[in-house]
Amino acid sequence: MARINRGGRGLSKERLRVLEKAKDELRELYGRPLATKKAAA
């Protein structure tokens, strides 16, 4: 059964920024490409 990642749902902008920074650090550590920045809505 596939799991849907809903991490960060309902977080404040500050906490979401911390989460995204941590995810980028993990990507760098494990040699994965960094996430592309999305255009502001």
Keywords:
41 residues, mainly alpha, globular, Phage_RSL1_Orf186
Summarize the model shown:
This protein is mainly alpha-helical. It has 1 helix and no strands.
Question: What would you say this structure looks like, in words?
Answer:
The protein starts with 12 loop residues before the first helix and ends in a 12-residue tail after the last helix. Helix content is 41%, strand content 0%. The chain is built from one helix and no strands.
Reconstruct the topology from this structure.
Elements: H1 13-29
InterPro entries: Phage_RSL1_Orf186 (IPR021513)
Largest sheet: none
- What is the CA-based Rg, rounded? 12 Å
Give the strand tally.
0
Gap between N and C termini: 33 Å
Average pLDDT works out at 80
Rough outline: globular
Q: Strand pairing plus helix content: what structural class?
A: mainly alpha
Helix content bin: 40-55%
Portion in strands: under 5%
Number of helices: 1
Low-confidence stretches: none
| Topology as a string of helices (H) and strands (E) | H
Pfam family, one: DUF3175
InterPro entries: Phage_RSL1_Orf186
